[in-house]
Amino acid sequence: MGNPVKGAFDAKDFLARVGAGKTIRNFQKNEIVFVQGDAADTVYYIQKGKIKVTVISKHEKEAVVGILGPGQFFGEGCGVFRAVRGVSSDPEQPD
Question: For residue 13, which phi and psi values (nearest 5 degrees)?
Fold first, then answer.
């Protein structure tokens, strides 16, 4: 894939260096990671598998916001934009 851009963010390097507060978790297919309205206090990085991110409308209809895969972050709005989750997420395929 060529050389990475100088100064580009390297998620694997970041995760290898981050210390306190880092936890590696494995989720099973259809296991809930978090739901809309939960406290937004954690950022997740996908090493393998896929995550479905959904939102429930005021009419209680579910909409898929996205399907995320390896190398992507989710839940990154915590502490910056909102105190509670605006979406829900659960694994689409097991590790």
Answer: -65, -45
